[in-house]
């Protein structure tokens, strides 16, 4: 998915964003994500430094939601997630993390293929699909 620049700026400029997952039984989990970047193909990569429930959930159910709120806007993004902990994708994510903080474990990475974007800013356009 080709995101609008303001959505990308918002996702990358905030210190932490929220990631929502659910188990195969539908039990929800929300966590803060600080370490993330976009790949050239437009997928969003989030580094697993300390994930437990989140990792378990995405292994059972690939549907995720990302929420970001900041000075550059408010958006909810939905997508399909894969967990990687070996191979080229993992190696690239681990190298990205270690270049920023060598003390982080970078145990794995979530690779999210974004499928939908919604406006989450309060007002008459709240909840409208924008991509």
Looking at this protein, list some descriptive labels.
globular; 131 residues; alpha+beta; Pnp Oxidase, Chain A
How many angstroms separate the termini? Answer: 8 Å
- Outline type: globular
The percentage helix is 10-25%
Low-confidence residue ranges: none
Q: Please trace the helix and strand order, writing H or E for each element.
A: HEEEEHEEHE
Q: Could you state the oligomeric state of the chains shown?
A: single chain
Residue fraction in strands:
35-45%
For the record, what CATH class applies? Mainly Beta
Structural class: alpha+beta
Q: For the CA atoms, what is the radius of gyration?
A: 14 Å
Name given to the CATH architecture: Roll
DSSP, total strands: 7
CATH superfamily: Electron Transport, Fmn-binding Protein, Chain A
Q: Calculate the mean pLDDT score and round it.
A: 96
The CATH topology assignment is: Pnp Oxidase, Chain A
What's the structural blueprint in terms of helices and strands?
Blueprint: H1 5-13, E1 17-22, E2 28-33, E3 36-38, E4 44-48, H2 53-60, E5 63-70, E6 73-84, H3 87-100, E7 108-119
Antiparallel strand pairs: 1-2, 1-5, 3-4, 4-7, 5-6, 6-7
Outline the structure in words:
The chain is α+β, with helices and mostly antiparallel strands and 131 residues long. It has a single domain (5-119), classed as Pnp Oxidase, Chain A (Roll). 24% of the residues lie in helices and 40% in strands. It has three helices and seven strands, in the order H-E-E-E-E-H-E-E-H-E. The chain is globular.
């Amino acid at each position: 998915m080709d995101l609008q620049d303001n959505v990308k700026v918002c996702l990358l400029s905030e210190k932490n964003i929220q990631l929502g997952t659910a188990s195969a039984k539908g039990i929800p989990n929300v966590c803060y994500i600080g370490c993330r970047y976009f790949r050239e193909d437009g997928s969003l990569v989030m580094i697993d430094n300390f994930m437990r429930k989140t990792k378990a959930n995405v292994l059972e159910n690939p549907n995720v939601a990302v929420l970001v709120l900041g000075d550059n806007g408010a958006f909810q993004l939905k997508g399909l997630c894969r967990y990687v902990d070996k191979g080229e994708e993992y190696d690239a994510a681990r190298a990205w993390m270690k270049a920023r903080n060598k003390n982080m474990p970078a145990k794995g990475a979530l690779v999210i293929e974004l499928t939908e974007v919604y406006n989450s800013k309060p007002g008459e356009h709240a909840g409208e699909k924008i991509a």
